[in-house]
Design a protein that fits this description.
Residues 42-215 form the Beta-ketoacyl synthase-like N-terminal domain. This is Beta-ketoacyl synthase chain length factor. InterPro entries: Ketoacyl_synth_N (IPR014030), Thiolase-like (IPR016039). This protein has nine helices and eight strands. The chain has 266 residues and is α+β, with helices and mostly antiparallel strands. The protein has one domain (5-200): Peroxisomal Thiolase, Chain A, domain 1 (3-Layer(aba) Sandwich), CATH 3.40.47.10. The chain has an eight-stranded mixed beta sheet. Strand 7 (247-251) and strand 8 (258-265) form a beta hairpin. Helix 3 (58-73) crosses helix 6 (121-130) and helix 4 (92-102) crosses helix 5.
């Protein structure tokens, strides 16, 4: 991997348990307020047509919320943005419902339930909501999905020279699947990445490979989110950005390889 993979972050969207948006998360990451335990609050996807809005799953609501927040911060036209969706799994609740149905004598699966269960469902709803016709990648790399999505987005940025919206997200599975995949709640981060600095740029990042251990967060509640929701492996980088601190952080990826991120605030 070329260590010159770099970008400017022009917008951020964020949602996690107790952290309903990026301004709240930024204040907590700065130490200005404590993280208050609460379920993830998913706003209604008003941008969707009524029929699709009724069918929208938790991951669809999550990805629309964070993607639109990041684009709004950057004043970007969502219909023109190349997107990368990265998640460690699909929609846990739909998967659970399908398994329940298949365990009965009536195995007739709802078409709506099925199409909401696939891994690219969130990307499909994004296209419906935003009328986007730009390229879209959908990536899964288990617990390394955030890193894989970031690498893909930066690669496209290098090749095409156009802004890329990375949307990394995860959701929980109900019992009994929860015992095997114990993500506690849904959460995610969206980054609007640009090849050049603008008046809205928040910081510059540059990636390189490393075998160093990933950075941990000193706040126990935030560290628990980092380790339990794969998309939030991004938190050390986001904390450096929130605090306006330049320097190097290390993010979990595919052990023994990790990702070193140089953060240069604007």
């Amino acid at each position: 991997m070329n260590p010159t993979l770099n970008a400017w972050i022009d917008g951020i969207g964020f949602l996690a348990p107790g952290l309903p948006d990026w301004p709240t998360a930024r204040a907590v990451l700065r130490g200005e307020q404590a993280l208050v335990a609460a379920p993830s609050l998913l706003p209604a996807p008003a941008i969707l047509p009524p029929a699709e809005r009724r069918r929208a799953s938790r991951v669809v609501k999550l990805t629309l919320a964070i993607g639109l927040e990041a684009a709004a911060h950057a004043a970007a036209d969502v219909a023109t943005l190349t997107t990368v969706f990265a998640a460690s799994g699909a929609d846990g609740h739909n998967c659970h419902a399908l398994c329940e149905q298949l365990a009965t004598d009536d195995r007739q699966i709802s078409p709506t339930r099925f199409h909401n269960s696939v891994h690219n469902a969130a990307a499909g709803y994004w296209g419906i909501a935003t009328h986007a016709m730009a390229p879209c990648q959908v990536i899964c790399a288990y617990d390394a999905s955030f890193g894989a999505g970031l690498l893909d987005a930066l690669g496209q940025l290098l090749v095409d020279g156009q802004p890329v919206l990375l949307i990394a997200y995860d959701s929980e599975y109900p019992a009994p699947l929860h015992a095997k995949r114990d993500t506690p709640d849904c959460g995610g981060v969206a980054l609007l990445l640009s090849p050049q600095k603008s008046e809205r740029s928040l910081c510059r990042i540059a990636l390189s490979p490393t075998d160093e251990p990933a950075d941990r967060l000193t706040d126990a509640a935030l560290e628990s989110l980092r380790t339990s929701i794969p998309a939030l492996r991004s938190l050390p980088m986001l904390q450096a950005l929130a605090r306006g601190e330049g320097g190097r952080v290390c993010l979990d990826y595919l052990a023994p390889m990790q990702l070193a991120v140089e953060v240069q605030p604007c």
